[in-house]
Amino acid sequence: MKADVKDTNHPVLNNPWEYTIIGLDYQIPQYDATPYLDLTLIKGNEVRRLRFLSPQSLK
After folding, report:
1. C-alpha–C-alpha distance, residues 56 and 7, integer Å
2. Residue whose C-alpha is closest to residue 28's, from 50, 49, 56
3. So what's the pLDDT on residue 44?
4. Cα dihedral 14, 16, 18, 23 sign
5. Beta-carbon neighbour count of residue 41 at 10 Å?
6. 3-class secondary structure per residue, 1-59
7. Mean per-residue pLDDT for 26-52?
């Protein structure tokens, strides 16, 4: 995937289009804990896990 120049700056990942998604985990805890979604990415030997708290409007 080729990125536009405006897409090159990302606050968490440099060149995010170079990563491959290897995991997606959505957790809805019991009781009053906050739901979250973990997105796991890989680029070469580098693995990154991003956590999104209280995801909404998932389809």
Report:
1. 24
2. 56
3. 95
4. positive
5. 17
6. CCCCHHHCCCCCCCCHHHCEEEEEEEECCCCCCCCEEEEEEEECCEEEEEEEECCCCCC
7. 93
Would you state the pLDDT for residue 9?
A: 65
pTM of the model: 0.74
- Separation of alpha carbons 16 and 22, rounded Å: 14
Q: What's the mean pLDDT in 31-37?
A: 92
Question: Which one-letter amino acid corresponds to residue 11?
Answer: P
Q: Which two tokens stand for residue 9?
A: 């700056």
Reported as a pLDDT band with limits 50, 70 and 90, residue 45 is very high
